[in-house]
Amino acid sequence: MKTSEQYPLAPELEMSAWINTPKALTLAGLKGKVVVVHAFQMLCPGCVSHGLPQATAIHEMFADDEVQVIGLHTVFEHHGVMTVEALQAFVSEYRLAFPIAVDLPSTLGTIPSTMKKYSMQGTPTLIIIDQQGCIRLHHFGSLHDMQVGKIIGSLLAEGDVALLTDEASTPSVMLDDTSCDDTGCRI
Amino acid sequence: MKTSEQYPLAPELEMSAWINTPKALTLAGLKGKVVVVHAFQMLCPGCVSHGLPQATAIHEMFADDEVQVIGLHTVFEHHGVMTVEALQAFVSEYRLAFPIAVDLPSTLGTIPSTMKKYSMQGTPTLIIIDQQGCIRLHHFGSLHDMQVGKIIGSLLAEGDVALLTDEASTPSVMLDDTSCDDTGCRI
Amino acid sequence: MKTSEQYPLAPELEMSAWINTPKALTLAGLKGKVVVVHAFQMLCPGCVSHGLPQATAIHEMFADDEVQVIGLHTVFEHHGVMTVEALQAFVSEYRLAFPIAVDLPSTLGTIPSTMKKYSMQGTPTLIIIDQQGCIRLHHFGSLHDMQVGKIIGSLLAEGDVALLTDEASTPSVMLDDTSCDDTGCRI
Amino acid sequence: MKTSEQYPLAPELEMSAWINTPKALTLAGLKGKVVVVHAFQMLCPGCVSHGLPQATAIHEMFADDEVQVIGLHTVFEHHGVMTVEALQAFVSEYRLAFPIAVDLPSTLGTIPSTMKKYSMQGTPTLIIIDQQGCIRLHHFGSLHDMQVGKIIGSLLAEGDVALLTDEASTPSVMLDDTSCDDTGCRI
């Protein structure tokens, strides 16, 4: 049986702005809750049709003191039009109700800081962090609602014992084309 | 913290026939697995459009040695046409792959034995039984895939410790009309 | 420009029973209306999930004096369980509201009379007949709602002039296996 | 019987930019085709989930020499972020393949020129223009695919005779709140 300590500690998020929360959230401050980070881009079709509705379902289905959903706007293409102002309009029109953060733009390249730190492959990416702050799922593309429910249910049940095996934390492969298909947008 | 012993023990299923399994299954023989019983009728629209696809998703998503899905054909209306032969044709045409049992007809009334024993209100009904054989969910109507995934994930994670709070095992209310709507078919 | 006379005259339906209508319908009696015949089997998954909801949409969307929807129960397999009584229970539970007829069983083989006369390949089959009683569409499998709407709209607009080109009335190929898949059930 | 002349002539579109076409389209130049104008905003949820997929279905289902689909980006809110550059990124990511035009911004108010000229109430709005250039449908909100198919089918069939009755061309009511719901975004 693997303990939570055997899973990689989730590195702190690096954000430049927050929407839908009076103050910035930190993973350190969320210890004791399961944290679900949905990384998306507002112009990513798979995020809009599948990922964000799923994030909303998690936000609505689980108690606030057990599960924290965070939307993470990880812009790696079309930077000039996916601005904070555009995101605010998007969040308002789509009536998203959970906290959403803007990934800190990189000073060096197109990929923002948190996205790089987590070696994400594109959007949508779902990251689930356990109550001890360890990464338990790191998935690029779509996952069935039942699968996501299972993982969150497992993490809520384990309390301070780590029981879950998962597909987590494999370093992602960097692909050389930036494009969106039905699955999502790759870097 | 409630232990599994505090939940009602699931009474044994009473079946008259089985499909998709070489031998009859018993709850006693399934100890150590989470058991998901999907009670349905082949002419119940909500079962066909939602319940049975969900049961199939559970069957496909979880390992055979962890979760056992059982379809339970609980005929309480139109007995003359929802026969075993009709069910076999239905199972074949819909390509259902998990074990399906025919609830033992009652000698006294219209409601079959297992349905009566569990005080089910109609179809679809979802019953989830933990690894110790206790009822942890007893739900009439539809449940979101994420909710079902959460419960199964919780029960798999608890091992021999019962951690879950749930909506389980409230004695169901017997309604006086037999009719189907978008939710399902009531007794 | 093809005139309606160039399309094959739709042979009269041969039915053994009717549901949802006080008296039997005949194509002769429906001249002046566009007639949409949806051939189905109650145990055909593609009929239940797609074909019958589409037939219901046509029934609800078009005026009764312009378009007549007829459900045609063309049983070519599992005859022992898809009886008139079973169909009545099915129609009641699924709340189908348009006239539904039972195709006259053959005295010789498994394929009922109207199905044979029209050389249908399986279920679902959609047949659309113009105001002059000619076959304008003969399609096995699913069709997009927009495509069906286009054809009906065209036939309503042509009045007594035939303007439409279509895929109609090619003699269907008889296949040698009886099986259902996502598309439908073949003979 | 109403003739096409009895329907209002569709006023010419006023555009500031075009995407997916080598040259600007004009209604005058499209005489002889049925023209389907889908007015949308890239941040309108009902347009993204329903209207644009329907426009794509029309574009794919009907022959290019019979039906011309035009996307019309009628920005009446969030002007600062729904720019031409943002629209180009959106069209690229969503892989929209039909010609899309940017409604000419007004020098006086928030509502662009074509939107004002047609008295549109919000997005999505569907306008269908017959082969003679007359408005035959003017609808705010969603329409069933079958309904849209019926109207286009009727207009293709009528040739140079106008047979269709429709809900067209009622002057729209101007509402005083700008907001989006499941139906669309109102002015």
Any overview of this molecule?
The structure is a homotetramer of 187-residue chains. Chain A has one domain: Glutaredoxin. Chain A is globular. In chain A, the strands form 2 sheets. In chain A, strands 1-4-3-2-6-7 form a 6-stranded mixed sheet. In chain A, strands 5-9-8 form a 3-stranded antiparallel sheet. Chain A contains 4 helices and 9 strands. In chain A, helix 1 links the parallel strand 2 and strand 3. The first copy, chain A, has helices spanning 45-61, 84-93, 113-117, 145-158, and strands spanning 15-19, 34-40, 67-73, 100-103, 122-123, 125-129, 135-140, 179-180, 185-186. Chain A is α+β, with helices and mostly antiparallel strands. Chains in contact: A-B, A-D, B-C, C-D.
Note the topology.
Four copies of one chain form a homotetramer.
Chain A: E1 15-19, E2 34-40, H1 45-61, E3 67-73, H2 84-93, E4 100-103, H3 113-117, E5 122-123, E6 125-129, E7 135-140, H4 145-158, E8 179-180, E9 185-186
Parallel strand pairs in A: 2-3, 3-4
Antiparallel strand pairs in A: 1-4, 2-6, 5-9, 6-7, 8-9
